[in-house]
Amino acid sequence: MIEPVLVVVLLIGLIGMGAPIFLALGASGLLGLWMARGPLAFFFAPTSIFGQLNSFELIALPLFILMGNLLSATPVGTNLFRAAAIWLYWLRGGLAIATVGASALFGAVSGVSVAGVAAVGSIAVPQMLERGYSRGLAAGAVVSSGALAMLIPPSVPFIIYGAVSGVSVGALFVGGIVPGLALAGALALYIYIRVRRHPDQAPRESGPPPRAGEMLRALGGIWHALLLVVIVLGAIYKGIATPSEAAAFGAAGAFLIAALVFRTLSLRSFAQILASSVKVSCTILLIIGCAKIFGDYLNLVRVPEIVTERLTATSLPDWAILVVLMLALVLLGMLVDAVSLIVVTTPILLPLILALGYDPLWFGIILVMNLEIAVVTPPVGLNLYALRGVCPMLSVEEIVRAVLPFVAVQFVMLMIFVLFPGLSLWLPGLL
């Protein structure tokens, strides 16, 4: 059994040296196949990549990324925050709670957490600091709520998990609604309790309350994007269109909103958006393809079966095994990016989840909830650095300290949905 050890050592070594993750996965997987099957490995590897990427559902990935990038180039993020702030004017801590609401809605628009942090954070943090909010509350609210984009559909991680596991992307989208809304509610509730106990962290708003006309006008800058999301997701949920078809409609609609409604698109900016979308999509697809090589090697040497046999043979109850797995995934998420974590751990852990009698749809939802914690914890938490990029008045260390209480809330919600699987499965079952 020395070969699997060498493969893992090569994988960790390449990642440690800063090699691209797709190269580390592909090279270590190819080494393993070569040690197991000799020269035939060089035939297995291309077949693995083609078999993984030859999926109609994966077409939704670049299209949803394009849709999110097009809408990120508009003032939708700013308009969402302003609308939420006006409607929650009466509530202490309303700006911070408005940030959670705006991030949740922008997550439904973009599907990418970093985009939400940049779009909402660039306006929300300066507004909160100007009104006397504590720096920790402002930073923590933006970073943690930006992660909601990973769970609230259309979610890029759900598309990737669906491609790797074979679970319906449409069912995953439906399954993410209840956990996403529950997590947003938990973050808002934490902010409310926090500012009630520490009123100095969120002073009450001064000045006259907004008029009804102003509240309605605030919705004028966001209804186009929200209507687009409702149509796209509604088409998927009703079975009118596949996720890939709906994503194509969403990308076309986002183009029209950016070009005709907000008039923020020029030929140059559109070319930049296309180039950025292609770059991100190709990066993710490369990781998915090369991870299949690594996964095929693990299956060849029966790693998933061995892990399943060893863990199910223990005297631990099922819930204890799940808690251990969740802790391991949280720790891995602190070191590995979200895409890599999905494509590497799913082939290993999914057989165990099935052996324990759990639904693979539920596991996909739980895995993405883990990723929400991963993107807000150092050293690989991209949301931390995204906020630092748009709010240079905050240091990375300050942002990390600010987000820790919000991470605790996220972990509590994760454990609730781990221990009570029916909470995330009843809506997909209903629809």
The number of helical elements comes to: 22
Quaternary status: single chain
**Total beta strands:** 0
Mean pLDDT: 82
Can you give the helix content as a percent range? over 70%
Strand content: under 5%
- Stretches where pLDDT is under 50 for at least 5 consecutive residues are none
Q: Provide the structure class.
A: mainly alpha
Could you describe the largest sheet, including whether it forms a barrel? none
Give the termini distance in whole angstroms: 47 Å
N to C succession of SSEs: HHHHHHHHHHHHHHHHHHHHHH
Shape designation: globular
Round the Cα radius of gyration to an integer and report it: 22 Å
How many domain units? 1
Domain TRAP C4-dicarboxylate transport system permease DctM subunit: 8-422
Keywords: Cell inner membrane, Cell membrane, Membrane, Transmembrane, Transmembrane helix, Transport
InterPro entries: DctM, TRAP_DctM
Transmembrane segments: 6-35, 56-76, 96-125, 137-164, 170-195, 216-240, 246-265, 277-295, 319-349, 361-382, 402-427
What does this entry look like structurally?
- This protein has 22 helices and no strands.
- The chain is mostly helical and 431 residues long.
- Helix 6 packs antiparallel against helix 11 and helix 16 crosses helix 18.
- It is globular and about 75 Å long.
- The model has no long low-confidence stretch (mean pLDDT 82).
What is the gist of this entry?
With 431 residues, this protein is mostly helical.
Keywords:
431 residues; 22 helices; globular; mainly alpha
Q: Secondary-structure blueprint of this entry?
A:
Layout lengths: L1 H15 L4 H17 L3 H13 L6 H13 L3 H12 L6 H17 L2 H18 L4 H12 L9 H10 L3 H7 L1 H21 L14 H7 L4 H15 L5 H19 L5 H34 L2 H10 L5 H16 L4 H18 L4 H15 L7 H9 L5 H24 L2 H9 L1
Helix pairs in contact: 1-2, 2-3, 2-15, 3-15, 4-14, 4-15, 5-6, 5-7, 6-7, 6-8, 6-11, 7-8, 7-20, 8-21, 9-18, 9-19, 10-22, 11-21, 13-14, 15-18, 16-18, 17-19, 18-19, 19-21
